[in-house]
Amino acid sequence: MRHRPGGLQRHQGRGRHRGLHRAGGQGRGILTPARGAGPAGPAFPVSRGVGAVVVAVIRFDLSIPHATSLKEKRRVVSSIMEKARSRFGVAAAEVGSQDLWQRAEVGMALVSPALHHAREMAAKVVAFVESHFEGEVCRAEVEIL
To answer: What is the DSSP annotation of 103-131?
Structure first.
């Protein structure tokens, strides 16, 4: 199938997803969600108290005084993010100071079913980063959602 600029790309012989329809039914229109899936809320019931989800967000301000290039900084930051991912299963990303060689802002998040477990795991992640990072951890903030 050839690419049509401005059109929805899909496999040959297939229509659009069953949950989408064209607004107004004419022209190239905007694809909108089907009836029943509007902004009024989720399409499934949400129970309170059962299956609670606690999210811990950790933000690190890091200093890498020995870095002489963005490539070296990226190596150091990627290394600690990958170690934390493999050890604790956290989601991690560089969230700020991307253009500075010797500074990094890294965000990590983890999900837990219990508040005490989320706090405990966040404390372990902070201790791990502080002990395994090649540079200096200037600040670590933990926020529980």
So the answer is: EEEEEEEEEESSHHHHHHHHHHHHHHHHH
